[in-house]
């Protein structure tokens, strides 16, 4: 019994030492990204004007999004006027989100490049962070504003149906 316990102990010790040699950072592999702070999916999402969770607070609190309203227009029994207004809201939101997304990605690229080329100083750092943070906020505002507008177009029954169809 003693020999078995000793074998188990040394086996566990060996495994923990071997495993400890490969304790990588959670960032491991991300050093090869085009822009270190953004995944390829995030870059594509910003460039395509996707929601990416920006309006989650609205969506989960009964403020439908125009993209999903259009997808569910038959089930929601939208009137022709509601469809027209929803398309207008979506197109405005999407156009602005794409425009801001492109600028955001370029600012993140410049920020990454400044570090990569070791051309970053405190002033440049603060300026870029301020611009990037401001753009991020504007993108979120664009998406949330569209949800606010949708709430005004839909009836309470349509909002309720929307939530049910979306699984909320």
Describe the structure.
The protein has 168 residues and is mainly α. It has one domain. The protein contains 7 helices and no strands. The protein has helices at 2-20, 40-48, 56-59, 66-71, 80-116, 122-153, 156-165. Helix 2 crosses helix 5 and helix 5 runs antiparallel to helix 6 (122-153). It is flat. The protein starts with a helix and ends with a helix. The mean pLDDT is 89.
Helices and strands in order:
Layout: H1 2-20, H2 40-48, H3 56-59, H4 66-71, H5 80-116, H6 122-153, H7 156-165
Mean pLDDT across residues: 89
Structural class: mainly alpha
Large-scale geometry:
flat
Q: What portion of the residues fall into strands of 2 or more residues?
A: under 5%
Q: Report how far the terminal alpha carbons are from each other.
A: 57 Å
Overall number of strands: 0
- As for the number of domains, it is 1
Q: Largest sheet at a glance?
A: none
Count of alpha/pi helices: 7
């Amino acid at each position: 019994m003693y020999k078995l316990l000793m074998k188990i102990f040394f086996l566990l010790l060996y495994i923990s030492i071997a495993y400890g040699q490969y304790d990588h950072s959670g960032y491991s592999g991300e050093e090869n990204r085009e822009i270190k702070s953004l995944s390829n999916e995030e870059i594509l999402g910003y460039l395509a004007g996707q929601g990416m969770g920006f309006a989650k607070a609205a969506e989960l609190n009964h403020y439908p999004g125009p993209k999903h309203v259009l997808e569910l227009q038959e089930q929601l029994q939208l009137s022709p006027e509601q469809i027209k207004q929803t398309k207008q809201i979506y197109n405005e939101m999407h156009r602005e989100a794409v425009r801001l997304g492109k600028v955001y990605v370029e600012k993140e690229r410049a920020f990454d490049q400044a570090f990569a080329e070791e051309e970053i100083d405190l002033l440049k750092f603060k300026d870029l962070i301020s611009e990037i943070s401001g753009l991020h906020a504007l993108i979120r505002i664009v998406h949330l504003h569209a949800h606010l507008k949708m709430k005004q177009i839909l009836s309470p029954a349509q909002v309720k149906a929307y939530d049910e169809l979306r699984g909320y």
